[in-house]
Amino acid sequence: xxxxxxxxxxxxxxxxxxxxxxxxxxxxxxxxxxxxxxxxxxxxxxxxxxxxxxxxxxxxxxxxxxxxxxxxxxxxxxxxxxxxxxxxxxxxxxxxxxxxxxxxxxxxxxxxxxxxxxxxxxxxxxxxxxxxxxxxxxxxxxxxxxxxxxxxxxxxxxxxxxxxxxxxxxxxxxxxxxxxxxxxxxxxxxxxxxxxxxxxxxxxxxxxxxxxxxxxxxxxxxxxxxxxxxxxxxxxxxxxxxxxxxxxxxxxxxxxxxxxxxxxxxxxxxxxxxxxxxxxxxxxxxxxxxxxxxxxxxxxxxxxxxxxxxxxxxxxxxxxxxxxxxxxxxxxxxxxxxxxxxxxxxxxxxxxxxxxxxxxxxxxxxxxxxxxxxxxxxxxxxxxxxxxxxxxxxxxxxxxxxxxxxxxxxxxxxxxxxxxxxxxxxxxxxxxxxxxxxxxxxxxxxxxxxxxxxxxxxxxxxxxxxxxxxxxxxxxxxxxxxxxxxxxxxxxxxxxxxxxxxxxxxxxxxxxxxxxxxxxxxxxxxxxxxxxxxxxxxxxxxxxxxxxxxxxxxxxxxxxxxxxxxxxxxxxxxxxxxxxxxxxxxxxxxxxxxxxxxxxxxxxxxxxxxxxxxxxxxxxxxxxxxxxxxxxxxxxxxxxxxxxxxxxxxxxxxxxxxxxxxxxxxxxxxxxxxxxxxxxxxxxxxxxxxxxxxxxxxxxxxxxxxxxxxxxxxxxxxxxxxxxxxxxxxxxxxxxxxxxxxxxxxxxxxxxxxxxxxxxxxxxxxxxxxxxxxxxxxxxxxxxxxxxxxxxxxxxxxxxxxxxxxxxxxxxxxxxxxxxxxxxxxxxxxxxxxxxx
Length: 837
Ligand code: ADP
Ligand code: ADP
Ligand code: ZN
Ligand code: ZN
Hints:
Keywords: ATP-binding, Cytoplasm, DNA damage, DNA excision, DNA repair, DNA-binding, Excision nuclease, Metal-binding, Nucleotide-binding, Repeat, Zinc, Zinc-finger. By secondary structure, the chain is of the alpha/beta class. It has 31 helices and 24 strands. It folds into 5 domains: 10-103 and 367-476, Rossmann fold (3-Layer(aba) Sandwich), CATH 3.40.50; 108-127 and 301-356, no CATH class; 162-279, ABC transporter ATPase domain-like (Helicase, Ruva Protein, domain 3, Orthogonal Bundle); 492-589 and 744-834, Rossmann fold (3-Layer(aba) Sandwich); 598-680 and 719-726, ABC transporter ATPase like fold. The strands form 7 sheets. Strands 5-10-11-3-12-13 form a 6-stranded mixed β-sheet, sandwiched between helices. It has a 6-stranded mixed β-sheet with strand order 18-21-22-16-23-24, with helices on both faces.
């Protein structure tokens, strides 16, 4: 460490000694409790391991230990952060980016508790129809039996099946499984045999059956029990019954609709529920018209709107309406008026904080799982600021993520609000605008994984200037210039028109091909709606592509999604013939189970397994490549099923993983581990870093080339077997990009990326830019929605969205080469872009 200014008053410092979590190299660091502290370093350098894995984890442990002796017993089983001591640590609140998106089912309104206040407002100060008695706050909640619409149970939508979803191909006969929704295997045959007993012709195409028969099979609620004689025709069955031949068994029939609805509502298996969901469609509830509440609640008005209508407006508009009401209520002196005034003022105060954080375009009803991680974090931040806690340490992960440079100022102000309230602040950031604002900077590095994990600097920002090993320094003190001299000329254009989706209204998109395009605009202007959603949906549909994103297999824990009937509208007008395929490269995990890892995702593990199976000793014992897989029972450890660890469930807390007591983390049976390839067993190979594996497989050109591509992507430090679930979003994205670069796909690919720089240090962004440039050099097209002006300045073409957020945005306000956007007075991005040109 270069400089460590001696703290004037150590009581005001948080002091960490001997931290060794993950890649941290026994580091010690002290940060002030009353300053804006920012932690920097390249992706994988160890910032999160220090900020969240050590400091926050320890604060959390101590806090829970102090509240209950019961919790203490649980914590004896919890991993303790590897650190010698932490002094001066206040209780902490973490606002961390979710790896792989939030799975929460709550809405903006419930997360911020704004919905509670609104319900109170309608209950106490709403205008009721004459003769109706006052309702309780709960009567305005669709989550309570008192408030929910009785028809849709508060869902706002009705989920049901149609003949088309149950029987996707009506040219098939029942024997050919026309009723796709029926259970597979034996149960399906049973249902067919019951129909044979009942005299239904199961060998003619579905469409040729009489309508009454088709309807009965699909929709009947009767569950008749019939004798079943498998393998016989209807005539033979009748004959058998006549002669008193006993049936093989009695089978009970269930209509296809009943079967699907029952499975969706009641099955214990997530896979079964997901399968049932795939045969359902949803439509707006005809009774509440999607407003989710019972009729009475919807009759109560405030400012001329019912609660569903008011809640459906963007936060900005709700604020404006409440401000207007507040002016009038101020003059009232009766009890109702006073109560209303109090609630309205409380609402305005909370809303204002969210508007300042650039979230005014959100709606209360918006599902939390549809928010970007940055929006979600700012929402929680905005709620915290109002909670009036003090003496708390806030640990934040990249709060600027998803923010346009012109919104970042407001964020900084909000963060200062936390400090001014007597709290401490530790912010992990990559955004130079935020870093330059730091009163105290901790730089971790210099590189990722084992080549990082040191504290390079801790002190006031200026002191970083003299730290030669810092990767952050050059970007903060403008020692690195960027900018592409001459933007590439597009070869062709892809034209889309009449795009309608979220806030996009009849947008026309002209996208240059064979170049790199960056889509910019303030938060909520519609970048993701246009790029990540509409473009992807419209083009992949036009290309007849089912799944633009290569997704890992669905896991048993997934919540089944019912196909929403709504999807982006729009047509490709011209240029489609130039494109072979569309590929989305996102930051979603590369696998959802600890069994997936970078080796399995890239396909390199298949080749490694073959190399092991080719070892003479393996051949002698007839061990094929399957023996070296931890997804197949043959060779993996039966106790942990190839995971290497066992999940320990803790009450009320996230479960933790302990090493498998049988294989001690090796994942395989002893006979598999006995097979040696150049002196290493398969578990050794999984423990290698990409750098080591590259060297180890030097004699196998295909494998070595694969690992080399990963090294080029800056992933040389990752261990092959590191579970996919512990990789950061940035790491997952780079693995996907490296896999793409390695494939050398034939034909023109349209690559789409949504905010790919999230979680990336400027040095990582430069590396990413080089990789994207490489894709363009191979002849492909790259389109990304971005806030990073450094990256935008290096693009060939830009589309700037706006002018505002939500309903005030959704248009392409400027398009052209970066130099032209920088000069365009209509663009709010221009001024920020200029600095980088
Ligand atoms: P940063 O926050 O700077 O991007 P991290 O602290 O997340 O870096 O990671 C530092 C190193 O520790 C990386 O090599 C990363 O792959 C590794 N790492 C992070 N989380 C885990 C984990 N749960 N298990 C094993 N290694 C991990
Ligand atoms: P940006 O990417 O520029 O931040 P978005 O495309 O995410 O903007 O959002 C544009 C508008 O569309 C906003 O008003 C936003 O609230 C709305 N929106 C985006 N995604 C959804 C969604 N899944 N459901 C409802 N509204 C959405
Ligand atoms: Zn309803
Ligand atoms: Zn095991």
